[in-house]
What we know:
Elements: H1 2-24, E1 41-48, H2 55-63, E2 72-79, H3 85-91, E3 95-99, H4 106-116, E4 123-127, H5 138-147, E5 152-159, H6 166-189, E6 200-203, H7 204-210, H8 219-229, E7 235-244, H9 250-276, H10 281-291, H11 295-311, H12 319-331, H13 333-339, H14 344-347, H15 353-358, H16 360-367
Parallel strand pairs: 1-2, 1-4, 2-3, 5-7
Antiparallel strand pairs: 4-6, 5-6
Amino acid sequence: MLRVLLLVAQAGLAALIGYNSVTSLWGWRDRSPAPRAAPRRLRVVIPAHDEERVIRGILTDLAAQDHPKDRYRVFVVADRCEDSTPQVAAGAGAIVDERWDGDPGKGPALAWHLERHPLSPDETLVVFDADNRIPPNTLSRISDEIAAGHTVVQCYLDATNPDASLIAQAAAMSYWAGNRMVQLARSNLGWSADLGGTGMAITAGALEDAGGFSDTLTEDQDLGVRLLLAGHPVEWLHDVRIGDEKPASVGVTVRQRARWMAGKRAARRRHLGTLLRSPSPARFDMAIRLVQPGRSFVALLSAVLAVVAAIWPGWLFPWWVWAAIAALQFVLPVPFLAREGLGWRRISRYPVLALLAALWVPIRLVSGRVRGWYHTPHTGEVTVSGDGPGQAP
């Protein structure tokens, strides 16, 4: 019986890897941007907790947008700030909402703001993080996509500090590969990309249909599933690159990703059954993404199985089968990274992704103890070598 269960588990893992590899091929083709259209009304909201060191950058970028100034407003939700974030934001021209009570976290802060200032039916909510940097055409591109009929859009999340440390580089590499092999692939398939928590835009109608923001640990993931269930898939904007600071230390990385993992687990408990009861390929794909562990960890696990099968043959698939499966996962992202515009010097550092794979188990252990929101600290450091996508100010 144990042998049968082990064979079934291996077959399931191999099938998952095959599924991810095949679907990633749809990410090779670039997406055509929507045509220019009449400017839409946008509401930009930036939740911020003690972000005086970085918030001026995103507000400066917003002031330089090519979208008509009378077609967007910028709000900063200063959430329990004990520094000068409200004063810096107000000085940069933002409308500041100060929040001192209620549950902590981005979801509750956004829900609180929208309860105080409801969206108009023709208004689209745009959310950025305080540490983001954005190009001048960001709002106009979002507006054009909304005018083209998309009710939810997610911009490309790039890295402002990929050279800050090995762990920051691993995170950036993970995003660069996943943006094309997961996110763009889903849009090209007509399914739903993931919301990233920042660089996202949602129409008033779509947000109402999905039930608004929740107080979960990963409000973006939970909302993304609810939007899909309500008939509003997330469209991926591969050409609109949002600079986002990645954690540069192992400790911050573990705490951030432990919160993500705990939130993903909660979303899985809440929505998996509903997703699986539908014949929709997009919902089935979302269910798989809620269930599977990190892709870098799956690749590392495949390599470990190859070694174990070589040492103790008989209980596992032949070692060469797992070696081939592991090699596929390690090699497949390389042409996609080159397609992203990474130079070979940067691509040669691709093995640093093994750091994130190795951290999966401790992150899993820490996630079991996560009970509340964790605010990721930001420094505003920019370290872009010019040999990768990178979004410098």
